[in-house]
Amino acid sequence: MTHQPSADAVVVGGGVIGLGIAWRAALAGMAVTVVDDAPGRGASWAAAGMLAPVTEVHYGERPLLQLNLAAAARWPGFAAELEEASGQPVGYRPGGTLAVARDADDNAALEDLYQFQLRCGLEVERLRSRECRQLEPGLAPSIRGGVLASGDHQVDNRALVEALLAACSRAGVRMVPGRVAELAVTGDRVTGVVLAGTGHGGEDAGPGPAPSRPAGEALAAGTVVLAAGCWSGGIGGLAAEALPPVRPVKGQLLYLRGPADQPLCQGNVRGLEVYVVPRGDGRVVVGATVEEQGFDTRVTAGAVHELLRAALELLPDVAELELTETVVGLRPGSPDNAPMLGPTGPEGLVVATGHYRNGILLTPVTADAIAELLATGKVPEMIAPFGPARFAGVPAGSGRRVS
Ligand code: FAD
Ligand code: GLY
Asked: What class, spelled out in words, does domain 91-151+247-333 have in CATH?
């Protein structure tokens, strides 16, 4: 069905991960095609855009922390390059993140986290209640204390998506508005992809309208990069074990709006149950739930209630803001919460998914590392610990935690 490769690489999925890889690979001189019928409208659109390796650090995830820190260090340069290449702003804002405690229990948990952050060598500062309120006057007087991570920033993830699309277009990336049904396999090699026909293929077939392409159309490629987020485990053509064990982790999130000249807060503010991200133009993002609900994308009254309640406890002026949008996204979760990056299964297949809660943060390192892999055939050292082979034998679609 496939013929001589018309592309050096076909990227399955046009979220920030697929688009970032396509852009960087095209800049390196490769002929790149991205297949997606709703590019940028998956988890990448739903995200909060925090670039927060320090406040999102979790026990038992030290290798991931190193990758996250490397990604954060690349962000200023990456944002500047992308703005130049696309001619569009990405809303990178180095405002820091203040994690606060509402009560004594919160304060004990925050102290534990602070001690762990110190052991990890991270730049954090313990603040008393008064110091927190000096930084963020809108905080509730009852706030007991906080931890400031000056290096945890944000980007406007929706502006990032639009900028990546523009940069891809300018760099000559071919965008194919369709869905991949299966990988084309010849002998022990992946040689391209086969597109789905009309019909959306069920609830786990990804966001966006049904494609209108004829069934079975094939695109040949030197390498296929599987970057379809939480849908990456559902592509046909290979045994389930050869696909990444990725699962959807539902996140509900809210957009609020207030006057741009009276910001709710200066930087990101988070409690144990909620985070608040001010965009600087009056928009405020409040997130997010973390739910194991499969491919369910319903907004629930309970989630909206809990997010608003938790945000109000930290920043009472939330009550004055307009609720403008409710959002649901499906994070691509992996068994150890770290991404799967690199060659897998037969020759000609590379995986870039499983970025879970940090895909926006990890866009620059993922894009550069996978583009380098495509150009040289060698796995860059930085992503070597994150090879998909670490989950050999874990079936696609499970993605369940192993620890
Ligand atoms: P996606 O953006 O989901 O893109 C996958 C793409 O693949 C989609 O466009 C889809 O249409 C396409 N696709 C699916 N199936 C097929 C197919 N068969 N053929 C072709 N295309 C297909 N990360 C951070 O770093 N900071 C944050 O603050 C943050 N907040 C978040 C808040 C929420 C509520 C959520 C849900 C996520 C958040 N994340 C955050 C995580 C981040 O959004 C994800 O890790 C990241 O967007 C994953 O990008 P992706 O490109 O892999 O997946
Ligand atoms: N990183 C924030 C979230 O996933 O909700």
From this structure: alpha beta
